[in-house]
Specification:
Helix content: 25-40%
CATH class: Alpha Beta
Largest sheet: 7 strands, parallel
Shape: globular
CATH topology: Rossmann fold
Number of domains: 1
Distance between the termini: 31 Å
Number of strands: 7
CATH architecture: 3-Layer(aba) Sandwich
Length: 142
Amino acid sequence: MTSIDFYFNAGDRLDVACRLAGKALQQKKRVLIYAPQPEMAQRIDRMLWTAQAVSFIPHCAAHDALAAETPVLIASDESVPAHACEVLLNLSAECPPFFERHERLLEIVSLDDEERLAGRTRFKFYRDRGYEIRNHDLAKAE
């Protein structure tokens, strides 16, 4: 069963997403970043190039020819190829319809009221289906 981690009180969701992707990469895990809004996918793509001061996080679009060899993929639709990504990082306001394919699901919730409400809805969806959820308060981590 997929394990789910909620990171809440994020000051900047995309900054947290880059840090989590980098951490998963250090742990030799492949990551699929689900960003269904094109502008969100473009922003996370740009940020991953500059996320670390001395290097970048290798990534490409999920449908790219190099996707099978790239550790971090960005998908903007539901027709995600079945590349073996252990970690799914959700940047959508909705629950990804394919989240069960992954060992871990990472959800990031910012301080924005609309995002918090959407995060609570996703949390309830997973909890009501019996998923184990770990919570990480980013306000306490700073």
